[in-house]
Specification:
262 residues, disordered N terminus, mainly alpha, 9 helices
Length: 262
């Protein structure tokens, strides 16, 4: 697996991460609102992720590099050089979107986002330590450890200040676990992107896998509960996943110059 060599200064990556955090909160607000309107978080997640898949289909059609990248991934899978499980990163993304519709309306955006971020930070620290991240093995520096501890403490403080309104602790534990899974998604997306040499191709694979999972869960939900009848007319409720291509971990640089595809 190729190790990451970033083309960008660290401060640019940090600013980008901060912006991504803002977009995550906005995406959670949109998907949570649609879930409340429909009364079905499973259909909400499938609708949201499906709209993102449509956007990615258009991007693949417009990008020759992405189409070549998909061919490379197929060839790597056929030759058994790329494990099939590395294509399942989209399953974590689907769980994240599902949590936005099911959990975020119950906890509020702030508490939900704190849980997600803390899980990502801790999961990322562990993956970097064992060498499974896109950048290879990275020993935890004191500042990274302090940042991780502060993120976990933020969850504890947030839970403690909301004990009167939270009926179940799992409402915060679940986003924390999802955040850790999203950190794992960064790992597998880095591997797939290195094979495809195309961020669009690896992101497209994410959306195909995630949409397939969510369509199955939505179908089961519809069979049990029926089809939602109160579909909102405002386009605002359907733009949540249009933010996702800029949020997915596969957008990181995961290959080294001169073949870097950032």
């Amino acid at each position: 697996m190729n190790r990451a060599t970033s083309q960008f200064p660290v401060w640019v990556a940090l600013v980008g991460s901060g912006l991504a955090g803002v977009l995550v909160a906005l995406q959670s607000r949109v998907n949570g609102g649609l879930s409340q309107e429909l009364g079905n978080g499973y259909v909400t997640a499938a609708t949201s992720f499906g709209s993102g898949l449509i956007i990615m289909c258009i991007m693949v059609m417009l990008s020759p590099r992405a189409r070549v990248g998909l061919g490379r991934v197929s060839g790597e899978i056929t030759a058994r050089k790329l494990p099939v499980w590395t294509l399942l990163g989209g399953s974590a993304g689907s769980m994240f979107v599902l949590a936005q519709g099911l959990v975020a309306p119950l906890t509020g955006l702030a508490l939900f986002t704190v849980g997600i971020v803390a899980g990502q930070v801790l999961g990322g620290l562990i993956l970097d330590r064992v060498g499974l991240g896109p950048g290879g093995r990275m020993d935890p520096t004191p500042l990274r450890v302090v940042g991780t501890v502060l993120a976990v403490v933020a969850v504890v403080v947030a839970v403690g200040s909301n004990l009167g309104t939270l009926h179940h602790v799992w409402l915060v534990v679940f986003p924390f676990v999802i955040g850790a899974l999203v950190a794992g998604q960064s790992m597998v997306n880095g591997i797939v992107r290195a094979a495809a040499r195309s961020a669009i191709a690896s992101t497209f694979i994410n959306f195909v896998v995630g949409t397939a999972i969510l369509l199955v869960t939505a179908a089961i939900s519809v069979i049990v509960s029926g089809w939602p009848t109160n579909w909102p007319s405002s386009p605002w409720y359907y733009i949540g996943e249009s933010l996702a291509p800029s949020l997915l971990p596969s957008q990181r640089c995961s290959c080294a110059p001169p073949e870097c595809c950032c």
